[in-house]
Amino acid sequence: MHQDNALKARPYFLPSNQCLPKLIDNDFGGTIGGPVIRNKLFFFGSYEGDFLVQGNSSFQTVPTAAIRNGDFSATSTTIHDPATGNPSTGRGRTPFLNNIIPSGRISPIVKKLTALVPLPNTNTFGTDTNNYFVLGLHACHQLLIPIQDNVKAGADVLGIPGTNLGSLPATGGLPQFNFTGYAGYGYSYPYLEYNDPVFQYSANVSWTLGRHNLKFGSNVSQQHMNHTETTPTQFTFGGGSTILNGGPTLTNFNSYADFLLGLPTSRSNSMNPTPLTLRTWEYSFYARDQWQITPKLTLTYGTGWEYYPVPTRANGGIERFDFQTNKYLICGVVSTPMDCGISVQKTLFAPRGGIAYRPIPGTVMRAGFALTPEQINMFRDGLYNYPANIGYSDTSANPYTAVAPLAAGIPAVQPPDISSGSITLPTGTTFATSPKNFVRGYVESYNVTVEQDFGKGWLGSIAYVGTHTVHQHTRYNINYGQVGGGAASQPFYKLFGTTAGEVEVLPLEAMNYNSMQLNLGRTFASGFQLKAGYNWSKWIATCCDTRADGSPAIPIPQYFYLNRVASPGDMRSNFTLSGISELPFGRNKPFLQHGIGAAVAGGWQLNGVLTPHTGTPFSISADGTGLNAPGSQQRADQVKPVRILGAHANSYFDPTAFRPLPNTQGRGLEPRTSTISMVPVQRIST
């Protein structure tokens, strides 16, 4: 397959003075197979190569010349001076004169950064939004190395203490600076090298005995993870330092004003004294019988058994936080066992079965069920644990103050003495831990299908397909704060002075997917094929962690039920129509049957696909300053019923149905839809 710009559509928002982004995609391959021992042993092999060079374009938001110089007079956002009023509560602050930050108050470090940032080059979407068009190039061979990896831009160029920790080139480049509403500065992904071989051993036996077809097998694999990777140094500017407690909700201009003043809301750094390693074994066995009871009835049944031991590192055990002693255990050191006392299940059976019945010719009824243990690496998030990865992370004690001036940098955590196998965590240290009793989740899958042959190549089916996940794991932030409680309500702040998130991999989530599937199609014959399908489904999940690789939006236990929503991937109606038709040219066709016309025009097919579908749900978020519950997301106030305006309006839905919440600190939950500090996740279907 070859694809290039010749048949590529012009992106709708591509500026008129820009050519199409480059695209050259060559995908080719082949298969080969044959007998080794006649009718008994065969070999097969295949190759596919995809060589892609692709240019990608995007719109980013950069500050105007006035904004980067501290002049917010043209905006509707009032920038308050954090040096006025009560510095710890944000009350009594007064605005900067004429809404302009004096040049002498702008951080010298920030002045160096903003001098490197380009000015807006388009006003397609306005002066302050998506005002910079950028074009980049992707190739098949990519090296994840930050720009100027031979320079510690944060430590040596900008002079920020505690940045670019470790040795070059792994710790080179510019730290990441994040703000609301603007493209961040620096590198969002670090220098890395992955060496992750997988050793797999499998064996299968098949035995036909009368009407029974028996299969047995096993699979044993060992996964190696060897990573050299340093998490980027990061500073985040939330905007709380330049708002008034009890005043208007902050905007992206407050966020950038905080940056100009050098007042970050959070900061983090890290270094790896040694390579990051993990060794994980997986064992599985299965037995299955396919029994043809009668010519019309076939029954398939069997079970699997799976076992997942506690992983280790290359030269020792993993780590676990002991909640009984509030100590951090280094597994395999002195008296701490190699598995840290973590128990895993040894009764992970995976039963499954199916039935196929043909009551009359042309009609087949099928049903099936399977239970599959969750294929999660129980220590996937612990690879970067302390002390293999040594870092510091913290956030401001309340949303109206900075965590520390940018010029102060970030504290550097020293490697600990682990000789006792048990340590006290330093302030700002983050980790991921497994519970002492690790319960592995599972997925229940079930379906019922009726298929009908209508004759003349037309086949149709109607099916119910569903899945249910039980004890699905999530990256649960156990260092959450209570509503209005701020940092003081975070458990690890009370223990160690740590405000950053701490992760425990817990089986707290569940999902349900149910669907009706209709299909009708004509098999390829006489040069023609047609297929049509319709799927109606409903997908309920925990917001917004559909793949067990995120975290709940609201970890506070008494409000955890608010996470139960329609999944972000929930697509209620999905219709697909596809067809293939041979063109009537060439040998044995109506036209151009002979000669050069047959050679050039013969053998071509015309195909097409139509896929209209409903949109997916989305949430309406809001600033969480007034919520003041670290680790939880804030939702906007719904003040009236949502009104859908339609896809062709400037807004798909009526935005006046929602409003930001006041930023008054410490407001609690109230049992009504409007004027609450935390509401159920608002889902609007598109």
Characterization of this structure:
The chain is built from six helices and 29 strands. By secondary structure, it is mainly β. Strand 23 (503-525) and strand 24 (528-542) form a beta hairpin.
Name the beta content range.
35-45%
Unreliable parts = 138-146, 665-686
Largest beta-sheet characterization: 15 strands, mixed
Radius of gyration: 30 Å
Number of DSSP strands?
29
Shape: globular
Mean pLDDT: 87
Discrete helix count? 6
**Quaternary structure classification:** single chain
Write the layout of secondary structure elements.
Elements: E1 2-4, E2 23-37, E3 41-60, H1 65-68, H2 108-114, E4 132-139, H3 153-157, E5 176-179, E6 182-185, E7 192-195, E8 198-209, E9 212-229, E10 234-237, H4 252-261, E11 266-271, E12 276-294, E13 297-307, E14 319-322, E15 327-330, E16 348-357, E17 363-373, E18 390-395, E19 422-423, E20 432-433, E21 442-455, E22 458-477, H5 491-496, E23 503-525, E24 528-542, E25 564-566, E26 573-582, H6 595-601, E27 605-610, E28 637-638, E29 658-659
Parallel strand pairs: 5-10, 20-23
Antiparallel strand pairs: 1-2, 2-3, 3-4, 5-6, 7-9, 8-9, 9-12, 10-11, 11-18, 12-13, 13-16, 14-15, 15-19, 16-17, 17-21, 21-22, 22-23, 23-24, 24-25, 24-26, 26-27, 28-29
Observed structural traits:
single chain; 686 residues; mainly beta; 15-stranded mixed β-sheet; five-stranded mixed β-sheet; 6 helices; 6% helix; globular; disordered C terminus
